[in-house]
Design goal:
- The protein contains four helices and no strands.
- The protein is mainly alpha-helical.
- Helix 1 (5-35) packs antiparallel against helix 4 and helix 2 packs antiparallel against helix 3 (70-79).
- It starts with a helix and ends with a helix.
Length: 103
């Protein structure tokens, strides 16, 4: 069975966006407040924001095509707001891709 490229892209984006959130909160924010380096938040924050928008747009596309259920889509979106939940989201999407491949 054909696996949609957008579903694969969403899986990768979930992982990368999750890593950018962890980097923003775990590295850039402490650099700003404890080391006086506000540029770190500016750079990482912009990258994270762009990745978040890209992942959200891809998620809406995947949902509109019916590649993911509304419930799974809601979980993927919620996971994008929680540090380290992007790892869970990525693994859930990989399982969905594997299930589609076996069908």
């Amino acid at each position: 069975m054909h696996i949609p490229t957008s579903l694969r892209s969403l899986s990768i984006l979930a992982l990368v966006e999750g890593a950018s959130l962890v980097t923003l909160i775990g590295i850039a924010m402490p650099l700003k407040y404890f080391a006086g380096q506000p540029m770190a938040v500016s750079v990482v924050g912009m990258a994270h924001g762009l990745l978040f928008l890209w992942a959200s747009a891809t998620l809406l596309f995947v949902l509109s095509r019916g590649y993911l259920s509304p419930l799974k889509s809601a979980w993927v979106f919620a996971a994008s707001l929680i540090p380290f939940a992007g790892l869970w989201s990525h693994s859930m999407l990989v399982r969905s891709i594997q299930a589609r491949a076996q069908a």
